[in-house]
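Example 438.
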Amino acid sequence: MSEFAKLNLIPSLQSVIVQAGYQSPTPIQSQAIPHLLEGHDLLGIAQTGTGKTAAFVLPILNRLCSDPRRLRPGEASVLILTPTRELAAQIGTCIEIFGKPLLLKHAVVFGGVGQYLQTRIMSKGVHILVATPGRLLDLINQGHIRLSNLRIFVLDEADRMLDMGFIHDVRRVIALLPVNRQTMLFSATMPMEVEHLTKEILNEPVRIEVTPQSTTVEKVVQKVLFVTRENKRALLKKLLEADEIRRALVFTRTKHGADRVTEHLERNAIPATAIHGDKSQNARERSLDLFRRGEVRILVATDLAARGIDVADVSHVINFDMPNEPESYVHRIGRTARAGRGGHAISFCDATESPSLRDIEKIIRQKIPVDREHEFHCELTANTLLDRVPVPQKQNVSRPSANPPGKPRRHGAGTRPPEAQARVQRQRNNKRPSVGVR
Ligand code: AMP
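Predicted structure in complex with adenosine monophosphate:
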């Protein structure tokens, strides 16, 4: 008997789950599904990668099958609101896998593509509507969608909605929902504004937290490499030439940065593809597809574009730039080690990024081990961090560096070989109090 059989889902859904190859529920699924089947509201504190999509999709399908209603033009029984097109498409795929054999209809609406196909599906009505906030409001304003008969509302990735500035649109949508409904809110972190929102929209919710807030996915092996900004591309190339990096997601801070890194890799005969907000929906899907099918093993992405990317077997996440917000680090490295597998996260940190590293270490409550053995290691950055005092920008620029920009580090005159560095480091550490010493 499948572990799912204990969850009281209807038999037809049980068979679809078996067909999909799911053997046992993930923790959020086993904890959330029984409450959701009883009709409770839910606050789920969980990141992508925990199985949260099926945790809400399965009980929704169960309810739609056991209490069917006639479809009405322009209406949906369930609304799942999610911040990005990629997430919307992924939720759509999950519904397709489990819902199609049950003859349930769904639509996925998001911006950046023509609305014709979306309005055509909505004209007949659907059981489940998955939407991003902007396009949803557009279609509501044009009279293509009505939410007055909604039975279930899911707000997915609430913290990301906030980060992306969608919270006002979300509130506008919520104002259009009937009061009598079941509501589920999912968020990886709980900033104040999300906390307020939960109080406004959830009615005596069950609270389920699967990974403690802002902790790092445990199975990811993390390390940080100190390097000057100028040497980052050469370091990346070097790393990617190694065989053990089977499939890597490389994060840059800007769209422009993603393009530059991709071009650099391609110029060096390392096939790579980029995904970011300036690319058309088709181009993004094409890149993702190449990456998913393994035709290109490197995907370069910005935080927003990569949000929710669900590609199995990403062996490495490489932070080419440290993220601005420490929470993004947790999201980024969660792209590897999916569904119980292990993975690696490698972060490049230059002198200007050391404050970000400190913030990340604070929220994950652990020190990320430093790899000093690579040829572009930049001791200046390492010292900046070791001393835990910000090095003034001027000093940083004018101080002669043992590792001038653009040149790999050599263990010759004026620099110490790694063993000697480690020895000096140990001596330095012994002189300092242990707190704050890496
Ligand atoms: P999510 O957190 O919803 O983005 O899911 C992450 C990945 O885990 C997706 O690829 C799912 O298909 C997969 N997944 C979710 N639940 C299970 C399960 N019970 N057994 C196996 N794989 C699962």
